[in-house]
# Entry
Amino acid sequence: MSLFDDDQPKKKTVHEIGSDLSQLSVDELTARIAQLSEEIARLEAERTRKSASRSAAEGLFR
# Structure
């Protein structure tokens, strides 16, 4: 291990749906769950934003 290993940016973990989970540790699984939960929240917020925008547009054309 090099003295400079800490200087390297950590590679962002990417989860692929359906990938083999048997080689992951409990900590890695927990990290992926957190990452996916954050992504779900981001997706839901975007869906809410678009829904509100669509509703406003529909109300304009009635």
